[in-house]
Amino acid sequence: MDCIVVFCGSSEGKDPTVIQTAYNLGAALANRHIRLVYGAAKIGIMGKVAQGVLDNRGEVIGVVPQFLIDKEIIHEGLSRLIITENMHQRKLKMHELSDGVIALPGGFGTMEELFEMITWAQLGLHRYPIGILNINGFYDDLLKMLRKMVSEGFLKPENHNLLLVDNAIDGLLRQMKDYKPSFLPKWISKGQT
């Protein structure tokens, strides 16, 4: 993996372990020479990941839609800033730049971004690893819900297995590095997204 997109909160939340782990993830990416693609903000968990990369001489690409430039505090130390017209173009650009996805704690935006990428994987639009860094069990309830989707017949086990989960940075990055996608039929073409 050369470039990982990280989806996470624009706020810091309440758990200091999440804040520190976000920074540590950034440092780990930089130390492995993996570029970070993220939402360009200086604030929140987003800003901590970016700062971890930058403090360790890594490369950070921020992608932000024009309308958010006035609402969010853009990180001034980015290696590169890409401005899109809207949110959909933002996600598409992040997807095009990356060859892996990691979700950290966040809110609605983080969930929406994560689920769009996992849905695209399910549809065969990409074959790169998607991981959740489950810091202090933040995603436990979501993971339980996903298992229920499988048991109730709404989610195929092979699609459930597209999502890699670990509570430690090294463990998740190792899983992502070793990830071998199983064959999934392409139901739609990239142009249809």
Could you characterize what this model shows?
- Keywords: Cytokinin biosynthesis, Hydrolase.
- Its EC number is 3.2.2.n1.
- It comes from Cerina litoralis.
- This is Cytokinin riboside 5'-monophosphate phosphoribohydrolase.
- GO terms for molecular function: AMP nucleosidase activity.
- With 193 residues, this protein is α/β, with parallel strands linked by helices.
- The chain has one domain (3-137, 163-178): Rossmann fold.
- Helix content is 41%, strand content 16%.
- The protein has seven helices and seven strands; from the N terminus they run E-H-E-H-E-E-H-E-H-E-H-H-E-H.
- A seven-stranded parallel β-sheet has the order 4-3-2-1-5-6-7, with helices on both faces.
- Helix 2 (44-55) links the parallel strand 2 (35-38) and strand 3 (60-65).
- Helix 1 (16-31) packs parallel to helix 2.
- The longest helix is centred in the N-terminal third of the chain and has 16 residues, at 16-31.
CATH architecture: 3-Layer(aba) Sandwich
Shape: globular
Count of the domains: 1
Output the radius of gyration.
16 Å
Q: Which CATH C-level class is it? A: Alpha Beta
CATH topology: Rossmann fold
Stretches with pLDDT under 50, minimum 5 residues: none
Oligomer: single chain
Structural class label:
alpha/beta
**Percent in strands:** 15-25%
Arithmetic mean pLDDT: 93
- How many strands, which pairing sense, and closed or not: the largest β-sheet? 7 strands, parallel
Number of strands: 7
Task: Supply database-style keywords.
cytokinin biosynthesis, Rossmann fold, LOG_fam, seven-stranded parallel beta sheet, 41% helix, 193 residues, Cytokinin riboside 5'-monophosphate phosphoribohydrolase, hydrolase, alpha/beta
